[in-house]
Design brief:
Blueprint lengths: L11 H4 L7 H9 L19 H16 L9 E3 L2 E3 L6 E4 L5 E7 L4 E8 L3 H11 L2 H4 L7 E5 L6 E7 L3 E2 H8 L7 H17 L5 E2 L8 E3 L5 E3 L6 E2 L7 E4 L16 H5 L14 E4 H16 L9 H9 L12 H10 L10 H5 L7 H12 L2 H4 L8 H6 L22 H8 L13 H15 L17 H5 L8 H10 L2 H4 L22
Antiparallel strand pairs: 1-2, 2-4, 3-4, 4-5, 5-7, 6-7, 8-10, 9-12, 10-11, 13-14
Helix pairs in contact: 2-3, 7-9, 9-11, 13-17
The structure holds adenosine-5'-diphosphate and magnesium ion (MG).
């Protein structure tokens, strides 16, 4: 018997009549004593979700090898990966007739194979090009590419990728109430880290089709950006936009600037193409607005920031992310309101978004407050009556009242005994004015200087569940919102953001220009 596998003899249509229709038929394979040797030598069994499909595939594979007279679907082999194009092995589908199947490498690695009709191979080819770029290869937050094939079959093109458990839409639905308080933050961070891999290094890439079904989740719950069919390299180094004649993206997940609003607001049944914008301009911040929509979907377990479907486009048009009002955490709300802004200039670049207080550790947040507390105008605010930052912090600027997120008297939120402990041996507590946040920042700075290097924490009454000084101060009842408010104040003041000791918290994005520089 010839143990040669058939290459591309099957399509979904051709195998349907021959495939085992139930597990019952497949169990016959198990009972066949000659079936043993054809499994990959060291099958690395990783997937939980697709375990059954893979086991079935392995059985069909072995069965194909050993018994040719019984009609089972031919296993197709693509670059040493074995796949059976039958709905039993289907794990996903998309627009354009995309079908995604599990496949098993003879090296024992479980993979996924994405199949597209031949006429659409240019999308697959484009995806291959982007996935094999250094930016994508180097990032664990971008789906892992294995192989591309557009020659073996007259009907289809194939892209072989690492196998993930599910897409983000499925994950959000299935996790529901199970997600912990910290999970959404980690997930949003991972989406942004994927975008950082694409946006922050030459040659830069725009994704242009972010949405929950284009983000994959692995067994450990880690996320990876996927589906680069309409992704684009920037036309040149340092360029800030990619111009395109057509709208792109997917319904509900398109940024404001990439929608033909005139067309949408027209009452004409047949749109006059000459009225459509001649170009849509896709920028990095276009990906960011959509990432903001996805982040909201993660935080709210499946909702859209621009509201119910029937109102969504109008709310997007009117710069009205209605969903934000239901977020109780002011920190994530602040980040998302920036990312979702209609004006592109108001949205952060990905590096800036990742330095938002939402993502900073307790230590980094306190280091930020300490750094601000060390600036001369804060150290001695009386000597700088014209400082915009200290004026807001101390509520001296009547046109910009201090944020309602801060208690009026910061001293009052600290246990009086703890306050004395913190001030013991230093500037006395009575010297700090509870209504002035410049004093608060100075106090924090002094406490960190005084106790920061000590191995043992002082004995504090209001320790709660905190185990470090940073955690103590960032407790809900104490200064949890202070890093956010200080961030909001400083980012309004361009000269402060650029200061040497603060610039790490406010990255300046300066894409290198093309002129004569090496790639
Ligand atoms: N590597 C993979 N591992 C697991 N599932 C995948 C993988 N790639 C795609 N899928 C599933 O298939 C669906 C469609 O794939 P996608 O690449 O988004 O195709 P399309 O370009 O047609 O949208 C995804 O939403 C996901 O559920
Ligand atoms: Mg897709």
């Amino acid at each position: 018997m010839e143990h040669r596998r058939h290459i591309f003899t099957c399509t979904t249509e051709s195998v349907n009549s021959t495939v085992p229709s139930s597990m019952e038929q497949v169990s016959k394979i198990e009972n066949n004593p000659v079936i043993t040797a054809m499994e990959p030598k060291d099958w690395i069994k990783a997937s939980i979700k697709h375990k059954e499909k893979l086991e079935l595939l392995s059985k069909v594979w072995r069965y194909n090898e050993e018994t040719e007279h019984v009609k089972f679907p031919k296993i197709a082999e693509i670059s040493n990966n074995n796949v059976c194009f039958h709905e039993e092995f289907l794990i996903g589908s998309g627009g354009n007739g995309t079908e995604v199947y599990v496949c098993l490498g003879s090296d024992g690695v479980e993979r996924a194979i994405k199949r597209l009709p031949k006429v659409l191979c240019k999308l697959l080819k484009n995806e291959q090009l982007l996935l094999t770029s250094q930016n994508a290869i180097d990032s664990p937050r971008v789906v892992n590419y294995h192989f591309y094939d557009d020659t073996s079959s007259p009907d289809f093109g194939y892209l072989i990728l690492n196998l993930y458990e599910q897409n983000l839409e499925e994950f959000v639905k299935s996790e529901g109430e199970k997600t912990t308080e910290y999970r959404p933050r980690e997930m949003i961070r991972q989406v942004l880290e994927g975008l950082k891999a694409l946006h922050a290094r030459e040659p830069r890439i725009l994704h242009r089709d972010l949405k929950p079904t284009n983000i994959l989740v692995d067994r450990k719950g880690n996320l990876a950006l996927s589906d680069f069919g309409i992704g684009r390299f920037f036309p040149e180094q340092g360029a800030t936009a990619y111009n395109t004649k057509t709208e792109c993206g997917s319904k509900d997940w398109i940024p404001f600037e990439c929608i033909d609003w005139k067309g949408l607001y027209s009452d004409k049944v047949m749109r006059d193409p000459s009225n459509a914008p001649s170009e849509f301009v896709w920028k990095e911040t276009s990906d960011i607005q959509v990432a903001g929509m996805i982040a909201f979907c993660i935080v709210t377990k499946g909702k859209h920031p621009f509201g119910a479907e029937i109102h969504r486009m109008i709310n997007l048009h009117d710069d009205n992310p209605v969903g934000l009002t239901e977020l109780s955490d002011p920190v994530v709300k602040d980040l998302l309101s920036q990312m979702l802004a209609r004006e592109q200039e108001k949205r952060p670049y990905v590096e800036q978004a990742l330095m938002h207080p939402y993502f900073l550790s307790n230590k980094e947040q306190m280091r930020f407050l300490e750094a601000v507390g060390n600036e001369p105008e804060i150290k001695n605010s009386d000597a700088h009556p014209n400082c915009a930052v200290s004026n807001v912090l101390d509520n001296r600027d009547l046109s910009k009242p201090r944020s309602s997120l801060l208690p009026n008297d910061w001293k009052a939120v600290i246990d009086p005994d703890d306050l004395n402990t913190f001030c013991d041996g230093g500037r006395p507590a009575s010297n700090y004015d509870g209504n002035r946040y410049t004093h608060c920042l100075r106090f924090i700075r002094n406490v960190r200087q005084h106790f920061g290097n000590k191995r043992r924490l002082p004995t504090l009454k209001a320790m709660g569940s905190a185990t470090t000084l940073d955690e103590y101060f960032l407790q809900d009842q104490i200064f949890s919102t202070l890093p956010l408010v200080v961030h909001q104040i400083i980012r309004e003041n361009p000269d402060w953001k650029k200061r040497r000791n603060l610039q790490e918290f406010f990255p300046v994005i300066n894409r290198r220009k093309a002129s004569g520089r090496k790639r």
